[in-house]
Amino acid sequence: MIVNLLVFIFLGLVAIAAALGLILSRNTVYSALFLIINFLAVAAIYLVMGASFIALAQITVYAGAIMVLFLFVIMMLGAEKPKEVEQIKWQRPLAIVLAAAVLIEGVYALITRVALKVTTNPGTAILSDPETLGLSLYNKYSLPFEITSVILLVAAIGAVVLTQKSRKGSGN
Amino acid sequence: MESGLSFNLVPWVVFLPLIGLGINLLVGRKFGELFAGITASLAAGLAFVVAVILAVALAGHPEGVTVPLADWITIGSLTVRWAFRVDTLSVVMMLVVSGVGTLIHIYSIGYMHNDVRHNGDEGRFTRFFVFMNLFIAAMMILVSADNFLMMFVGWEGVGLCSYLLIGFWFEKGKDGIGNANAAKKAFITNRIGDFGLLIAMFLIFVNFSTFQFNEVFSQAAAVAADKPGVMLLITLFMLLGVTGKSAQLPLYVWLPDAMAGPTPVSALIHAATMVTAGVYLVARSSAFYVLVPTAQTVVMWVGAATALFAATIAVGQYDIKKVLAYSTISQLGFMVAAVGMGATVAGMFHLVTHAFFKGLLFLSAGSVIQGVERGMGHHSHGDVDPQDMRQMGGLRKQMPVTFWVYLAGALALSGIAPLAGFFSKDEILAAAWHAHPATFIVLAAAAFLTAFYMGRQLVLVFFGEARSEAAQKASESSKVVTVPLVILAVLSVIGGALNLPGLHTLEHWLAHTLGEGEPAHFVWLVAGTSLVLALLGLGLGWLIYSKKKDSPYVDPLKKALGPLFTALENKWWVDEFYTAVVLNPYKAFAQFMAEPVDLGMIDRIGGGLAAGTRVLAEGLRKAENGYIRTYGLWMLLGLAAIMTWLFLR
Amino acid sequence: MVPIVYPLSLAVVMFCIGILGFLLRKNAIVIFMCLELMFNAANLAFITFANQFQLIDGQVIVIFVMTVAAAEVAVGLALMVAIFRTKHTVDIDQMNSLKG
Question: For the packed helices B479-494 and B88-119, what is the interaxial angle rounded to 10 degrees?
Fold first, then answer.
């Protein structure tokens, strides 16, 4: 039990540190790398909770595909060190205040409303099995599944269309 | 049963004139003047035939019949039907309206033929007959209604037709707008009266829960015992309506101005029928008035005062139609006084005979006017006013038929026995003598003045020497004009037979509807007095006015009475008084409401709302500054707010 | 094993850090990455509840979220590229033409 707790706390701290690194880093590439670390930490937490398929999917899709895409674009646009001149001065304090408020409220709500003794369960075989996931996905959630595939298709086409260089004459 | 079928004919008294007007409206122009005139006269004539059939049927079934036609309003506990009440009172009115109306229609064929040419718009001939038929229809609805609301429909309808017909030549008159102003005045003054009638109707509905005559009158005694104040209010407000429609004090001022309409209009609407609607209303509601002696007294005095007041003004008028107009107001005063006194039969009797001889007088006046216009020839408008009596004189030589019928009408109006007016006026005077001596004196004085101004008019128009070239060259009117005049003259002479003392035919006839009242007494003293007064009046008029005068014409009374005569000439300055006291302050008030209040404040509220919205919009626009992070910040703010709220719940 | 409060608070913290980053950074691509962080926090919460209630539905939803996030990233970055062609910057404050 205690090992689990310790592992979890370690992973949690890593995740938080990576997140902070993401938002505080001046270098965009460093931010991307911090985000990858965050994803990996969270994937480990998923594993702890018994969602093994999701954990690996997280690593493959998020860390492997999405972040690679991010890095491609960062490289392409040469956006490593942009100038940081604040346009709207009053936003920064207000944003910090509001985010802090949300944070405090959220955590406080959790602590007071959720009983501390409710714990996560060990990963059961059934729930970690991709078969269960697949059955649910293709039976109960088949419609969202199909729609999601359409979304992916649209995204792919959209990405191509948006980045097309406009031809001479038919510009937009 | 035979009478059942006859009674069911009653809707035709309304529908025949409507069909006539429909035909004239659609195809009247195409087929010429004669077609339009004959169609309209035929419609009125057939309505008269139906009325006669109804009267005959009623003779065997005298308590009257209600013939429902359609349901009109059904809301909650209120049910108003369009039903026709055929009883002795309504049939009398129907006969008068359609009978005299038909004669006037026939007369109008000839009269309007000349009038549209004199005024320069021949195309308007058909329109006249459309309006006239509409009037007959509306008047029939009024007299045949079996409930107050239906009667009010007819009441308003005749008011509308009066407006349309007074303003028939709407672009003519003083300053090009005089006729239109007269029409407006008639309508608005009537409206004030109608307001009174409406209040009375509302009170009736609140207290009786119904508008139907029979139901209302059967409950009248109970309600009067229960709430006497209400009954007084109802009768007094009804009186307001009567003063408007029947031209009594204080709302009579529209009738003299209404002479701006063509003469047949003055004869039909403003002498024989529409103005008698008020008298009919009081007669119909006699069940109310007998329960409220105070109201009866008020009505009686309103009538008597009007009779005397108008008679004095008639003495000082120079326009032939204005004299007759004030005479009408005065005679209506007699009728109203009669029904106020409770002598309802006498009032109705006078209504019928008055329709005969006043209709005759107006139509003959029209004939005289057109004769003078013919005499004017090509000098048409401008130098000579064809209606001014000071420019007439000696016309009995040029227009003999008109003279004789006019004489018959004048003698009947003055109350010379044995013509119709003598019997009817005498009955009223006898009732006054019996119960209200003070009223008798007032009415007798009015009767004396009536004879006097009629004598004055006869002499000025028909006797002596012609005072203008137009009068010298005047010529008699065509047969289509003179034949109805002769018929009316005959009726004026023999009309007294309707209710001869001793026989009391009309009284028995009306008793079926109005209930048995006191039979009228024939008091020889009163009869003799009224006859003597009439002869005195005529004689005095003859004496004063038949002296040869030189032009420009000055009325001999002017020197004799001085400032009093000036007051009479100026109709006691009543119109000026109303303008100063009522109209001008009202106009000032309207002006005040229009400019500072309406334009200033209320418009500004609307404009202010618009401006305020714009300012608000401008302000809110600043929130859209294009920076995505700002939008995200607002979202976060919303999120924090919702969370806080959920948190604190 | 682990009290459920901990993963959930972790999710909340990550979410708030994502919001902060979204509002405070000017680089559009970093802002996108903060969006991904927020998605991630939501996913964590879903998985936690799926574990607690022993239902597979939480995991299914996470699959969908990931898919849609991927699609969104693709389109978003394509948009960034397109904008960069005209504005030659990824400073998000420069993309303010839709102001009213």
Answer: 150
Please state the pTM of the whole predicted model.
0.70
Neighbours of B471 (CB within 10 A): 24
Mutate to test the interface with C, among B628, B631, B643 (most CBs of C within 10 A): B628
Residue B388: pLDDT over 90: no
- The residues of B whose Cβ lies within 8 A of any Cβ of C are 621, 624-629, 632-633, 636
B493 contact partners, CB below 8 Å, separation of at least 6: B408, B412, B419, B420
From chain B, pick out residues whose CB is under 8 angstroms from the CB of A102.
Answer: 636, 639-640, 643
Q: Which two tokens stand for residue B402?
A: 């008109």
The string of pLDDT tens digits covering residues B172-231 is 877 778 888 899 999 999 999 999 999 999 999 888 888 888 888 888 888 878 888 888
Q: Which of C18, C19, C79 sits opposite A162 (nearest CB)?
A: C79
Q: What is the DSSP code (8-state) at residue B79?
A: E
CB < 8 Å to B643, chain A: 102, 105-106, 109
List the beta bridge partners of residue B65: B86
Length of chain C measured in residues: 100
Indicate whether C24 pLDDT > 90: no
Whether B161 and B97 have beta carbons less than 8 Å apart is answered as no
Q: At what angle do helices B420-435 and B479-494 cross, to 10 degrees?
A: 40
Interface with C, mutate which of B620, B621, B622, B627 (most C CBs under 10 A) = B627
CA distances from B157 to B139, B178, B540 (A): 7, 23, 43
List pLDDT tens digits, range B443-475. 999 999 999 999 988 888 888 777 777 777 777
